[in-house]
Amino acid sequence: MQLTNRQIFQQHLATPAKLLNPLEIVKAEGIYIFDDTGKKYIDLVSGVSVSNVGHVHPKVVKAVKDQLDKYMHLMVYGKYIQSPQVLLTQKLVDKLPDSLNSVYFVNSGSEAIEGALKLAKRITGRTQIIAFNNAYHGSTHGALSVLGNEEMKNAFRPLLPGVDFYKFSNNEVIEGITSRTACIIMEPIQTEAGIIIPDIEWLIAIRQKCDETGTMLIFDEVQLGFGRSGKLFAFENFNIIPDILCLAKAMGAGMPIGAFISSSANMNLLTHNPALGHITTFGGHPVSCAAALAGFAVITDEELHLKANQKGKLFVDLLTDQPSIKEIRQMGLMLGVEIVSPYTVSDLISIFLKNGLIVDQFLFNETSFRIAPPLTITEDEIKLIASKIIISLQEMCDN
Prior knowledge:
Layout: H1 5-12, E1 25-29, E2 32-35, E3 40-43, H2 46-49, H3 58-68, H4 83-95, E4 102-106, H5 109-124, E5 128-132, H6 141-145, H7 150-153, E6 163-166, H8 172-176, E7 181-186, H9 200-213, E8 216-220, E9 244-247, E10 258-262, H10 264-267, H11 286-301, H12 304-319, E11 325-331, E12 334-339, H13 345-354, E13 357-358, E14 360-362, E15 365-371, H14 379-398
Parallel strand pairs: 3-13, 5-6, 5-7, 7-8, 8-9
Antiparallel strand pairs: 1-2, 2-3, 4-10, 9-10, 11-12, 12-15, 14-15
Helix pairs in contact: 3-11, 4-11, 12-14, 13-14
């Protein structure tokens, strides 16, 4: 007897968590996802900030198909000149400050973090790393070492030594940055903590202390990049330029790709002492780069990044004054909606799903849920979604 997709999923597919009744998806388009029963859901997660231009955007699909007709993988990254990589590099550096003019392509956000940590140690010759409580940077060993949640990493120790943690948006960290510090790694807005927006003066003080001590400032914009924050890159909201920038998720418009970016002088250090200081086989895959080029063009041509904040504020306006909502934290089209006790986000998410909304909770904030739809969402769709959220909240209160 042949097993169904669901049976194979449950019996043979390794997953990070056990799910009782996962959806089986057969189609996705724009802001919508369809399951095997034909039910349509509105996606308010975007694959965790991946699908900024929506699902299967026609321009992205065309770019992928066109590249497939030319070539796929040729050789390990950096050996050949490949047009999709070169064109994407140029598009990125044209939109970035002069000090971020050298792009190293990888496959994911975790890999971008790994490369950035190595680069910071190579630049400075130092080993101390500063990170923050409730920060999420990925699940590989180096990324896990700078993740700010003990429960998620304690079973995998020993991890990288010399990592010190501080409270986010707290001045205590300023004194911790010294001439021994290789880098400070941070999200300019903490995402998995529930969309925690720091004080601008605090970020400026960190930048100044890094300059004084020769410490590399690494910004993790894996979730925040490519328009999500209301700017093309989140650091633009704060007028702070990092020494190393990490990107992924929305970068590939649905295809896997990431990058860490710094100056040419910094990146050239990875070419010697030792040679091949950082290598990858599939980094900058030409098909992923082609998709990234098309997705980036959609964002910039349609000015989706410039419209994100207005759309996010519309969500805030429509959901404010709901008695079961304690607080809404918003930057661009990324919102953390905190509900009042004793209601639980896990119960609310089940109600959302029943009402055709795909919503996710944060890793390090159990009282908030995330709203992060594709940036292509319209104001009419936002109004519809807000009405469904309000109905769901009322159902939660009535249960």
